[in-house]
Automatic annotation (TrEMBL):
Official protein name in the record: 4'-phosphopantetheinyl transferase superfamily protein
Alphabetical keyword list: Transferase
Taxonomic lineage from the root: Bacteria, Pseudomonadati, Pseudomonadota, Betaproteobacteria, Burkholderiales
One annotated GO molecular function: transferase activity
Record domain 4'-phosphopantetheinyl transferase: where: 112-184
Domain of life: Bacteria
């Protein structure tokens, strides 16, 4: 089984799932900064997963951009969200949880955000929801049966995180200032950003057993479509 596999979705964004523990990943294509960041991890497993996620990201971006993985250069955004120095117009986002990572690629200038969480018990879900969810989202979560509540919590959580990544401001936006919802349907929300209102579409999707996934895309007028990449091109 490949360590980087496409997730089939009927949507303009392309999403790849990475099994971070499936293989040993060399660091040759990483930048000096990435290698230094990896070296700061105390535990070997965390270090190896960081390396795997960033090597996989470079491999995927190389396949889309035509630029050799080791030559890709990243520019930090104002809230730390990286962007490619070149080529312009290739939007991406990376998220990882335990042994699973997701890489999203979007067309044109439409900023994209993706988030993944490994499904697990959340005994403090109610307290977390009170701190980060809107009143309506808290009520919806409370109405879900106990057997599905952990999944509903992570559904809302990943949708919130994906939205924050799509607008590129991270924790600079109050997560209670916009609705993302606890169900997995596609919807549009509006997020206050720098005195304006950003329109963002959100959807949850199946990323494989044991994970909860969401993707968000900031709405723009760019409707171009990017050519799909075959799995074999990642290792060319």
């Amino acid at each position: 089984m490949s360590t980087i596999t496409p997730i089939t979705r009927r949507a303009p964004e392309h999403v790849w799932r990475v099994d971070l523990d499936a293989a040993t990943w060399g660091t040759a294509c990483l930048s000096r900064d990435e290698r230094e960041r990896a070296a700061r991890f105390v535990f070997a497993r965390d270090r190896e997963r960081f390396v795997a996620a960033h090597v996989a990201l470079r491999q995927v971006l190389a396949a889309y951009s035509g630029v050799t993985a080791s030559l890709l250069q990243f520019l930090p955004g104002k809230a730390g969200k990286p962007a490619l120095a070149r080529p312009a117009g290739l939007q991406f986002n990376l998220s990882h949880s335990q042994s699973v990572a997701l890489i999203a690629i979007a067309d044109g200038n439409a900023e994209v955000g993706v988030d993944v969480e490994v499904l697990r018990p959340m005994p403090d879900a109610e307290a977390m929801a009170a701190a980060y969810f809107t009143d309506a989202e808290q009520r919806a979560l409370a109405a879900v049966g106990p057997e599905l509540r952990d999944r509903a919590f992570f559904t809302c959580w990943t949708r919130k995180e994906a939205c924050l990544k799509a607008v590129g401001l991270g924790l600079g936006v109050d997560t209670r200032s916009f609705e993302a919802g606890v169900d997995e349907g596609t919807c549009e929300t509006r997020i206050p950003v720098d005195g304006e209102t950003a329109r963002v579409t959100i959807s949850s999707f199946d990323g494989g057993d044991g994970v909860v996934c969401a993707i968000a895309r900031r709405i723009s007028n760019d409707t171009g479509a990017r050519r799909p990449i075959h799995e074999s091109e990642l290792y060319a």
